[in-house]
Amino acid sequence: MPGTxxxxxxxxxDDDYDDEEGNGQSQDSFDEIDEDLVPAEANGNITGGDxxxxxxxxxxxxxxxxxxxxxxxxxxxxxxxTAVAIFxxxxxxxDFLDKLSQPVMSVSYKEVDSFPPPGIALFPDDAQLLxxxxxxxxxxxxxxxxxxxxxxxxxxxEVTYVGPFTEQKxxxxxxxxxxxxxxxxxxxxxxxxxxxTQEDFSAISYxxxxxxxxxxxxxxxxxxxxxxxxxxxxxxxxxxxRTWVKMSLVKTSGRNNEAVEFRQESGVVKFNxxxxxxxxxxxxxxxxxxxxxxxxxxIRLIVTANPWSSVGILCAVFMALFKAANFAKLTVxxxxxxxxRHLKNKARELNPIN
Length: 354
Description:
Elements: H1 2-23, H2 27-43, H3 48-101, E1 104-111, E2 119-123, E3 128-135, E4 156-162, E5 170-177, E6 187-194, E7 203-209, H4 212-217, H5 221-231, E8 234-238, E9 241-253, E10 258-270, E11 283-291, E12 295-302, H6 307-350
Parallel strand pairs: 9-11, 9-12
Antiparallel strand pairs: 1-12, 2-5, 2-7, 3-6, 4-5, 6-11, 7-8, 9-10
């Protein structure tokens, strides 16, 4: 049957054509390529396809070089970011530890109308207390018969105890209730007298402590005075002068406890002794105690290290490190991929044509 034979021949040719397309080129095509290549190689001529292959490597080389340079640059940026993040984390931790170990002092002033009456402990030794009076508004009336006992309107407590630094010597302290009404400038004026002494210098020592009521409420007054002498400073005022002491109170709040400190300013003026000459052998001492101003100074130790800010900075640093590590991971994957592609293209170029 002619129709059947022709259709079968056409089907066979279609199958051969499909096979040729599937293999990329037919055997006849390879033969033609071989026939064309032989004269070209014999004559030393280069075809257009050879020109294309010859011109392609430099272009690929330039692209590969740029990619490698870009890769090295990315790795360098990653290393720089990692070093900066590590340095920032170290610096943050160091600053936090420094601020934690070195608190900052915060000074504030609080205005008050009155202070708790302080305790004024005087150590007159052989001297005698002649008078003790309260006055106001920085006014002290003229002296009347100085050197003679006069009115005493102060609250006084006498304590005898053994000093903390001289175990064998007993000390006598005359403790006076100090002024409190700073608004009306309350002051205390005291007068002492002392007979002739063999000492080269004549002076009376005194000490200030926070509250006079602490002594009154203490069960053991001698032990209380020993502790005060151990913890507070001593000052003196000389005979033949009027010493005006202006006190100020400083409270220091530490991490675990509070401390009270007295600061003072003193002014000294000479006493013009108008007594008869035979009475001037008795040395006179004059002292005034007054608050300097109505402000109480408070000193607080503040730790400026904020753990939450440090934690926030460290979290940001670790997030940056994580991002940098992720970036490095993607960069390595990209490098491996580009390497494989380069090797594949190179193998394809070097693969001989069969």
